[in-house]
Specification:
Layout: H1 4-8, E1 13-15, E2 20-21, E3 39-50, E4 56-65, E5 70-76, E6 84-86, E7 97-102, E8 114-119, E9 124-125, E10 131-133, E11 136-141, E12 144-150, H2 153-161, E13 173-185, E14 188-193, E15 202-213, E16 218-227, E17 230-235, E18 243-250, E19 253-260, H3 262-266, E20 272-279, E21 304-311
Parallel strand pairs: 1-18, 13-21
Antiparallel strand pairs: 1-2, 3-4, 3-13, 4-5, 5-6, 7-8, 8-11, 9-10, 11-12, 14-15, 15-16, 16-17, 18-19, 19-20, 20-21
């Protein structure tokens, strides 16, 4: 009997810790590059929170960095209460540690009272604007711990500070809906992604290069997308195939991978390409299906990763 990957699509690629299958190039490692990957200048993550009262809250957390500034912005639902913005100057946060309470814009508003606690005094960064360790940002919604970013020890510290009992601390159910990265530089992009809340983190690399075809008679652009150093798609003659999609399997999930690099070739003044990874919640063969089946798995939340890539090379 054919396995689920080959049954779904002849071109589907299965990514796991032990193997990658169902592709003629799946066993090839990702093309190495001596070029350093482009640097992200903005990273936004959208979280869905379900409080103990069953109230749902959407939170967007955006880290950004330019040549002279670095900052953090947090918005809620339809921006009520107003967004939280942590202003920065060159390299150093003006206020690396503190708290702030956000009140609803109107006394009659049904919006929640929100408290934000942050500590970036020991934050460490890699190439992007988002800290990777030594920090925490905690969002409390109506006296309930809603979102904890950074060090997990922050949750325990916070519970003690608010006199919460460990066995009765209200904790919201959190799901990461999407992550959006804006990159500027060359045509090599590297990031990490977790395609479901219980899945592992994977290294994702996207690279566009010019390669020889037909025994070196001519050269054409080629797009390679790699997960954990394994090639999952390889698109030749990219100037003709500048838009497309591919289905891959990651951690047992169907993931639709779409690319649009039209502007790299036909609108160089803009130069933005878009790459999208989106998990499916069902096994239907149609792309981007809106599932309305009563048997839909309500516990599985679809995740999307968007990469906006500006080619300045």
């Amino acid at each position: 009997m054919r396995d689920i990957v080959s049954c779904f699509s002849e071109n589907a690629v299965n990514v796991s810790h032990s193997s990658i299958s169902c592709s003629s190039y799946a066993n090839k490692g990702c093309i190495s590059s001596s070029i350093a990957p482009s640097t992200p200048n903005s990273i936004s993550s959208i979280y869905k929170l379900i409080l103990s009262t069953l109230k749902q809250v959407l939170i967007t957390v955006t880290w950004c960095r330019t040549h002279s500034n670095q900052g953090l912005t947090i918005t809620f639902n339809n921006e009520d209460p107003p967004p939280f913005r942590l202003n920065t100057n060159s390299r150093f946060f003006r206020k690396k540690k503190g708290t702030k309470i956000l009140e609803p814009s109107s006394p009659d508003s049904e919006s929640s009272k929100i408290e934000i606690i942050w500590d970036l005094s020991s934050a460490k960064y890699e190439s992007g604007p988002e800290p990777v360790q030594g920090f925490h940002v905690v969002i409390i919604i109506d006296s309930e711990i809603g979102l904890v970013l950074g060090d997990t020890s922050a949750e325990e510290t916070l519970s003690k500070r608010l006199n919460f009992k460990s066995n009765s601390t209200p904790l919201a159910k959190v799901s990461l809906l999407s992550r959006r990265e804006h990159c500027t530089g060359n045509t090599v992009y590297s990031t990490k992604a977790q395609f479901c809340n219980t899945g592992t983190w994977h290294d994702v690399m996207i690279r566009c290069s010019v390669e020889k075809e037909n025994e070196g008679l001519f050269r054409s652009p080629v797009l390679c997308v790699c997960i954990d150093n394994k090639t999952v798609i390889r698109v030749k003659r990219l100037h003709w195939n500048f838009r497309g999609n591919q289905t891959i399997f990651v951690d047992g999930l169907l993931v639709d991978l779409l690319w649009d690099v039209h502007d790299w070739f036909f609108n160089p003044s803009s130069g933005y390409a878009v790459f999208m990874f989106r998990t499916r919640t069902g096994m239907d063969s149609r792309l981007w299906l809106e599932e309305k089946s009563p048997h839909k798995d309500k516990d599985r939340v679809p995740f999307s990763l968007f990469i906006y890539a500006c080619n300045n090379s």
